[in-house]
Amino acid sequence: MSRVYNFSAGPAVLPEEVLKEVADEMMDYNGTGMSVMEMSHRSAAFQEIIDTAEKDLRELMNIPDNYKVLFLQGGASQQFAMIPMNLMKNKVADYIVTGQWAKKAYQEAQKYGKANKIASSEDKTFSYIPDCSDLPISPDADYVYICENNTIYGTKFKKLPNTKGKTLVADVSSCFLSEPVDVSKYGIIYGGVQKNIGPAGMVIVIIREDLITEDVLPGTPTMLTYKTHADAGSLYNTPNAYCIYVCGKVFKWLKKMGGLEVMKQRNEEKAKILYDYLDSSKLFKGTVVPEDRSLMNVPFVTGDKEMDAKFVKEATEAGLVNLKGHRTVGGMRASIYNAMPKAGVEALVAFMKKFEEENA
Ligand SMILES: Cc1ncc(COP(=O)(O)O)c(C=O)c1O
After folding, report:
1. Is 147's C-beta closer than 6 angstroms to any atom of ligand 1?
2. N or C: which end of the chain has fewer CB within 10 A?
3. The Aminotransferase class V domain covers which part of the protein (predicted)?
4. How far apart are CA 255 and CA 116, in angstroms?
């Protein structure tokens, strides 16, 4: 077996321990004589899997009792429509546009009501987070929307925006479970799981109960109504059962590692190794203003496209894979999610130093 260090932004590296466990249980899950892939989602065995996953996630994130946890399909992108369809009672919402994913959500919301762009960092290629302490929040806004960690550009909100009392909705796809959060500050926290938690094809939505109503926009499909899934314990239809099972394993792994406070320390330590080197390098340069740097996604460039391509090629040959930046920005990006070991980041920095010496 030969494993690489996988710096993909998502689908992304998973803990080896979890991969081994699910491999061991592939033919016979817990004496059932079948794989979780083959199991009815109405079986007692699966009910226990989903209940345990939810319980462990609640414990990890300290989710208050007045929030529901939903395991839904359609990825994070489906939420771009589902949020306005369910929350736009006044048909007004404010969007802070800090990257492509926030922009897509903002554009989608325009189909359902008046979506206002109240702040943006597009003027500098989304390389910073705008000051959100006193924004022109619309008096009748149903919610204020952010993408908390910008996967493509490598920025992170270090402080939540002042929403002036309005409901905060956050896409946390690429920082999910990377550090503790105060769930009570949000109306909805949601994220695709394929970055920090599990296989692709599922989104976890943590939603305050008062936001789950039958009063949705006319024409909202049953499947896109939060109430449908909340009432059915995420089992209205056949869920992504295998994904829920793997996510549950990752929650157990996170608990065993010591929980989110410990993950935060580990993530800070890992990111510092890379950022410190970027700050000292003469060849490579980080693209984000230091105060808004993400702990999860670290974009960097040499300033020369050919040199970037040479770096990505040689790194791949050295077993450091998926370092090419997003197709819209170029350069490089190292995604260093929870499951990326410190040794992986050290190996990357050692390789970068060597590359810098050879190409000085
Ligand atoms: C922050 C963020 N939001 C949304 C998405 C879209 O997720 P999905 O492909 O699950 O729809 C991504 C995917 O990379 C992302 O990084």
Report:
1. yes
2. N
3. 4-348
4. 40
